[in-house]
Structures are given as C-alpha cells and as structure tokens.
Design brief:
Keywords: Iron. Pfam families: FeoA (PF04023). Strand 4 and strand 5 form a beta hairpin. This protein is α+β, with helices and mostly antiparallel strands. It has one domain: Ferrous iron transport protein A (FeoA) (SH3 type barrels, Roll), CATH 2.30.30. The longest helix is centred in the middle third of the chain and has 9 residues. It has 2 helices and 6 strands; from the N terminus they run E-E-H-E-E-E-H-E.
Length: 76
C-alpha cells in the first residue's frame, strides 16, 4: 500500500498525488472547485513560513500550513 501523509509534511521539490481532502464542506468544495481533486498530481514548489506553495494543473497556489494538514497525498 502507498504511503499517505498530509501535504504539510513534504519538503519542496516533492511530487505527490492527492488521495483525500478531510476538511469542512466549504473548504473542501473550494479546493475541489480549484481543481485539487483526488488523483491530481502536484508538486511542492516552496515553503515560506506558514505558507506552502504548490503547483498543479498549470496553477501555482499558496496555501496555509493549516489547510495543507487537511490534504492527504501519496508521494510519487
């Protein structure tokens, strides 16, 4: 079975696939609408303090560490 970790635990340069988003309905819906859906591959671009910068589907997005802890991924 693949390892599943929360997004906040990965270092820059890591590629991963989204497994699940465990968040309230509003946040989950917002992330899904932005295209961060299960199965999506992403890359950790950088970390600035409490912000994690990710790239997926041609989009670069900065999310808080708190939100990143709710996104579960499998490193590639």
């Amino acid at each position: 079975m693949d390892q599943v970790v929360d997004l906040s635990s990965l270092p820059p340069g890591t590629r991963a696939k989204v497994v699940d988003i465990v968040a309230g309905a509003g946040l989950r819906a917002r992330l899904l609408q932005m295209g961060l859906t299960p199965g999506t591959e992403l890359e950790i671009v950088d970390r600035h303090g409490g912000v994690i910068v990710i790239r997926f589907r041609g989009t670069v997005l900065g999310i808080s560490k708190g939100i990143a802890k709710k996104i579960f991924v499998s490193p590639l």
